[in-house]
Amino acid sequence: MTEPTPVPDAAGGGSRTATVPPEPVLPAPVSKQASNGHRQNGAPRTEATPEPGANTHVNGTPAAVPTAVTRADVRSGDDVEAGIVALWRSYGESRDQSQRDRLVLHYAPLVKYVAGRVGTGLPAHVDVADLIQSGIFGLVDAIEKFEPERGLKFETYAMQRIRGAILDDLRSQDWVPRSVRSRARDVERALERLGAKLQRTPTDRELAAELKIGLAELRELYGQLQLTSVVALDELIAPNKGGSSLAESLPDDAAEDPVASLVDQDSRRQLADAIAQLAERDRVVVTLYYFENLTLAEIGKVLGVTESRVCQLHTRAVLRLRTKLNEQSEA
Fold it and tell me: Which stretches of sequence are listed as region Disordered (predicted)?
C-alpha cells in the first residue's frame, strides 16, 4: 500500500496528490560459480560490488551515491589574507623571529621579481642568484621596519627596500666611483643630443662646448672613463657564439709576427744563394767575418794576406752580394 503525499502544484496554487512508490530494496551480492561449474584459482567467482561514487542502476533509474571529499582543507584567498593580517598583528606585538621568518617565506616571490627586473640591464656575468641574496636582506629589513597600523600596502614598500638593497650591493662591488659613472652618463646624453642635432658624430670641441668644460678637461675625463670599459674574465675565456673566445682576438706583443718570419726566411734564402755564387776567396771572407766573427786582421792571417787586402776583398764581396740581391728582387 502506498500513502498519498501532498505535492505543491506547478502553478503554485494549492497542492495535488501524488503516489510515491516505496524505496526499492537492493539484493545483497550473491556469489556464484563459473559457468563451467568449477572454481577458478581455488575460489568462487563473485559479481563485482559497485564502488562508492559510481552510478548504480535500479530498474533503469540511476541511484545517486555521494562522492568522497578528496581534500578536506581548502582555503580561499580571503582566508590566506586574514591569516597574513593576523600574522602581522602577532609579529608587531611579540617581534618573534619565527613569525618574521614566516613573513619572509610568504613575500619571497617579491625578491625574485625585483631581482629579475634589476638584472635585465646588467652585464651577463652578473648572477641573478647574487641579486636575490642581496634582496632577501632588503626584505628582512623591510619586514622589521614596516608599520601596518599606518594603513600602507606592504608590497609597495618592500619592493623599494629590496631594490635599494640590490643596488647598494652592486655599488659596493663597483671599483669605479659614482661620480665617474655620473659623468659618463652625462657624456652619453650629450653625444646623443649633438648626434640628433648635427646628424653626424660631434667633435671633441663641440662635445666640450655642450658639456661646458674645456677641451683639456674633456680629454682628462676620457681617461677616467676608460676604467668603466672592462670585460669580465669569464667572457674572455669562454667561447662566444662564433666558437672562439674574446681572448683569442687580443694581440700578443710577445708573439712572433708570422709575416715578418716569412720575409726573414725568404731573405736568408736569397742571401745564401747569392753567397754561393761568389768566388771562393770572397765567400771565405764573408763567412769568416759575418758567421765566425773574426776581425779583418785575423782573416788576413788565415788567408796569408795583409789586412788592407782583406778589406778590399770584403768590400768587393759586399758589392757583388748587393747586386745579386737586387737582381733577385727585380726578377
Answer: 1-68
Give DSSP secondary structure letters for 285-313: HHIIIIIS---HHHHHHHHTS-HHHHHHH
- Contact between 62 and 24 under an 8 Å Cβ cutoff? The reply is no
How far apart, in whole angstroms, are the C-alpha atoms of residue 187 and residue 140? 38
| DSSP character at residue 213 | -
C-alpha cell recorded at residue 49: 560490488
Averaged over 197-215, what is the pLDDT?
A: 89
Task: Measure the CA–CA gap between 225 and 177, rounded to whole angstroms.
Answer: 11
Q: Partners of 7 in the beta sheet?
A: 16
> Would the pTM of this model clear 0.70, i.e. be above it?
no
Integer Cα distance of 187 and 190 in angstroms: 5
CA distance 115 to 138: 11
User: Which cell numbers hold the place of 250?
Assistant: 687580443
Angle between helical axes of 108-118 and 128-145 (0-180°, round to 10):
130
CB within 8 A of 64, min separation 6: which ones? 55
User: Which residue bears the cell 677616467?
Assistant: 224
Residue whose entry in the numeric block shows the C-alpha cell 560459480: 33
Contact 236, 246 (CB under 8 A): yes
Nearest Cα to Cα of residue 155 among 215, 105, 107, 221? 107
What's the rounded Cα separation, in Å, for the pair 137 and 115?
Answer: 12
Say if residues 193 and 178 touch (Cβ distance below 8 Å): no
